[in-house]
């Protein structure tokens, strides 16, 4: 199965957490957290349209300035999603610079702040020197972004302060059955993208596709599509190791193909994990097992373990695979 998304950690586990998700076939990418993003090229930064911030501790948000600089002249808006206080944090960052020479720049930053059952919305437009404009909020039902290709969901958790976990879910995945295509004498071409788009948008009855000068109805073409379960990529970091958080996370990340999870402390330091509101490697492994995830990808280790990084992986994997 050809994936629709490629998700990977930008940095090593002792560096800032930040997941870059490339949407293959669209000139676009998403970011889960914006720690140090210095390893991303200008081209990769320019593709980022939506950023999902877990919380604004400096190791998760310091990359905002660099991203802003990269997209400053762009006409595609930049959307930022985050927990309670994200709007004032973005406002604070923007007010730290002088903006008298950008009035003709098209960039619009749209910020969405999740607070319990509500999402507040504020804009910062380059044309208005990034002065804050507040908009009416909307109800938060767990879904932050809906795109024909995928949905981004969020859940609010505790890290002493509110913190958001995020998941990208592809509704379903469409593969083209090449043999069925050949049998019908249909050529490979741009029409396949239109065909997949029509399936995603549910236009199965009405759409008619022109292929090599001949018209085809969607129903006629459906046998060439092989539809499978979509990809799920989830991201959880900086959460207190309490039962309520853990229960919520297990449900939220259930069935993920890729689960990026912090493993900040070792289980032997679990008292410290409670004090600092972080998960242990064992808990990350347990959550991954209970949630039935495919791949557990560990991120965000405490710098105190640089000499024993292998212990973090083995502790988490022991729980995940339940080997003793
Ligand atoms: Zn952190
Ligand atoms: Zn934190």
Features:
324 residues, alpha/beta, Metallo-beta-lactamase, Chain A, 6-stranded mixed β-sheet, 18 strands, globular, binds zinc ion
Overview of the molecule:
The chain is built from 11 helices and 18 strands. The chain has 324 residues and is α/β, with parallel strands linked by helices. The chain has 2 domains: 5-170 and 231-321, Ribonuclease Z/Hydroxyacylglutathione hydrolase-like (Metallo-beta-lactamase, Chain A); 174-229, no CATH class. The strands form 4 sheets. An 8-stranded mixed β-sheet has the order 1-2-3-4-5-6-7-8. A 6-stranded mixed β-sheet has the order 9-10-11-16-17-18. It has a two-stranded antiparallel sheet with strand order 12-15. α8 crosses α10 and α10 packs parallel to α11 (309-321). The model has no long low-confidence stretch (mean pLDDT 94). The structure holds zinc ion (ZN) (2 copies).
Looking at the structure, the CATH topology of the largest domain is: Metallo-beta-lactamase, Chain A
Total number of domains: 2
Number of helices: 11
Q: Mean pLDDT, rounded to whole units?
A: 94
Unique ligands: zinc ion
Shape: globular
Q: At CATH's second level, what is the architecture of the largest domain?
A: 4-Layer Sandwich
Q: Give the strand line-up of the largest sheet.
A: 1-2-3-4-5-6-7-8
What is the CATH superfamily classification of the largest domain? Answer: Ribonuclease Z/Hydroxyacylglutathione hydrolase-like
Strand content: 25-35%
- Structural class call reads alpha/beta
| Overall helicity | 25-40%
Element pattern in H and E:
EEEHEHHEHEEEEEEEHHEEHEEHEHHEH
What is the CATH top level name of the largest domain? Alpha Beta
